[in-house]
Amino acid sequence: MKYAQAITAAAWALLPATLAAPAEGTHKRAISSIVSGTPMGFASGTTGGGDAATVYPTTVDELKSYLTSAEPQNIVISGTFNFQGTEGTKVVDACDAYPCTTSNGGQALLNTLGGCGSIATYSVSIDAAAYNPIYVASDKTLVGKDNAVLYGKGLRFSDVSNIIIQNVAITNLNPAYVWGGDAIAITDSSNIWIDHVTTSYLGRQHYAFGTGASSGVTISNSFLNGETSNSASCDGHTYWGLELVGSDDTITFYQNYVYMTSGRTPALSGNTLFHAVNNVWSSNSGHMLEGTDTGKGLYEGNYIVDAPTVVQSGFVGSLFTSDASVASQCAAYLGRNCVPNTLVNSGAFSYSDSSFLSLFSGKSIPAAASAASIESSVPAAAGNRL
């Protein structure tokens, strides 16, 4: 599946014109009272809509208008916002690139970037709303109440900053077709906090980071639900989890639950600094971690179960996995020792490359509990459950 990584840069190059970044200093307003808790890790200080008046959209058009507006917004939604069919359909060429086809639990590959190569193509009709994400503008807070769901629509952050997304589900983005839709895509952006979000039934990535540098991003308390009826790995597990190819990204991945995947959780590439703290990875049928470039990952206090291959053969990035014998090396840079991971029925995951730990100096570092203590608590709380 390496061909998909090779065309990631081309995919981002084809995106529509990006939105303007906010004026300097606009992110310093106090965080809105509609938000539960405060951002941690690299996104600390993110305030979203700040003290803007709260709005309550009731239609998909109102929601799109608020999310893309030039001014700060605090947005509260409840129930299901069903985008399916609202923008018509799009006819594109596709091919059967995997052993299983859409009729027997697989995915077809959209040939939008020429990925089919010499494989025979045929025309398919996909939902245009799922294929076209909402380009969220700067200084926005979106909070869900009463099981808020974005059905058939993803979100994209491009050349923006200071955004909070909390307690929503994103689902049903052309799941039968690779390139049919990403849940959340980020490039050239900063100060993004994504918290208590559930993602499922997607055409491609749960989280896709483009090649532009994105700093100060935290994904926390979220549920990446990889169980799917359309699987590129032909086994009900999604292959498309976290694509991290940014040129200078800083990402905190904190107390998330990653379930039923078969690869790319994450694809740690580009020049990404990835801090994975107190997450639970469960049931990975392929490999959990891969990467082709100089990605750097610090893993501590994570609980990893049923992942026979944790790191794909040939991974070329840098990893520090906080083994008990070297955990004290973190103290000089994090202000505390790292916390060892726990692996159950899983492959080897022991790396001690400390050459990049100095990059954490002066940054906001979340506390870390023992891996054993989060086995049940993280899955129980992750996703849109507030």
From TrEMBL:
SMART domains cross-referenced by the UniProt entry: Amb_all (SM00656)
GO BP terms, alphabetized: polysaccharide catabolic process
Cellular-component GO terms for this entry: extracellular region
Family per similarity comment: Belongs to the polysaccharide lyase 1 family.
One Pfam family named in its UniProt record: Pectate_lyase_4
Signal sequence coordinates: 1-25
Principal subcellular localisation of the protein: secreted
Protein's name in the database: pectin lyase
Catalyzed reactions per annotation: Eliminative cleavage of (1->4)-alpha-D-galacturonan methyl ester to give oligosaccharides with 4-deoxy-6-O-methyl-alpha-D-galact-4-enuronosyl groups at their non-reducing ends
UniProt-listed Enzyme Commission number(s): 4.2.2.10
Cited SUPFAM superfamilies: Pectin lyase-like
Residues annotated as domain Pectate lyase: 96-310
Keywords linked to the UniProt accession: Carbohydrate metabolism, Lyase, Polysaccharide degradation, Secreted, Signal
Cellular localization per UniProt: Secreted
GO molecular function list: pectate lyase activity; pectin lyase activity
